[in-house]
Amino acid sequence: MSSPATRPTFLLVHGAWHRPTCWSALQDALAADGWQSRTADLPSAGPQSTPTAGVHDDAEEITAHLRQTEGPVIVVAHSYGGIPATQAADDRLGVTRIVYLAAYMPEEGQSLATVHGGRSVKPEDEDLSGIAPIVFDDPRTSLYGDLPDDQAEHALGELVDQSRRSFQQQVTRAAWRTVPSTYVICEGDRALPPALQEKMSARASHVERLGTGHSPFLSAPAELAALLGRIASAPAEG
């Protein structure tokens, strides 16, 4: 068990169309358990009128937080956030583990689009500007299916625009090759198919499961905080 003096800080990396405030309930639960956390604010997701930042801009934001954080850091990346986290996380910056929470876990040369079978697009080949539309026919069910109606409506009202560039840019490095990783499969997920999560989780050092939908930081913050605490307190891997 980590002592309070050596406990890692959790750096929480949100997914597409979200803002750092989506982590508030989880941060409260982590604090109640004695854990410190901070959030990254990815520039690919609003609130600017037309976000144009891509994966590498988001990775720079994560790197800046890592440089500002003293002591060990566990990066917790949700959904799209797994892509810039894969680019940015580095044990030389104090990262001791990456937790992929129902997140994309790409290999070098992959983008979110190519993970889903889309073609590779290079910046010099095509204009990557513009907004990525919310791709779900029913975002309430896909993103927040296990939330009460009032909480789901509030969460939907907090969504912002997401840059198209962020879905098309490829990663050039895969941090999970050198940094220990845990993949948390959300078994009731209706946004990122559990079968795809299972496939990506094969790259992780360790796999955990939650019986939640896509957004356990909203639907089960105390359960997720307890799981993250167990992951952080587990003996280091050799």
β-strand amount: 5-15%
Oligomer: single chain
Helical residue percent? 25-40%
Outline the low-pLDDT stretches: none
Q: Choose one word for the global shape.
A: globular
Compute the separation of the termini in Å.
16 Å
User: How many helices?
Assistant: 10
According to CATH, the fold-level topology is Rossmann fold
The largest pleated sheet is described as:
6 strands, parallel
Structural class: alpha/beta
> Topology as H/E string?
EHEHEHEHHHHEHEHH
Strand order of the largest sheet: 2-1-3-4-5-6
Which CATH class is shown? Alpha Beta
How many strand segments? 6
The CATH superfamily bears the name Alpha/Beta hydrolase fold, catalytic domain
Topology:
Blueprint: E1 9-13, H1 24-32, E2 37-39, H2 55-68, E3 73-78, H3 82-88, E4 95-101, H4 112-115, H5 139-144, H6 149-157, H7 164-168, E5 181-186, H8 194-201, E6 206-210, H9 216-219, H10 221-233
Helix pairs in contact: 1-10, 2-3
Task: Describe what you observe in this structure.
With 238 residues, the protein is an alpha/beta fold. The chain has a single domain (9-233), classed as Alpha/Beta hydrolase fold, catalytic domain (Rossmann fold, 3-Layer(aba) Sandwich). Helix content is 33%, strand content 13%. A six-stranded parallel beta sheet has the order 2-1-3-4-5-6, with helices on both faces. The longest helix is centred in the first third of the chain and has 14 residues, at 55-68.
Descriptive terms for the model:
238 residues; alpha/beta; Rossmann fold; six-stranded parallel β-sheet; globular
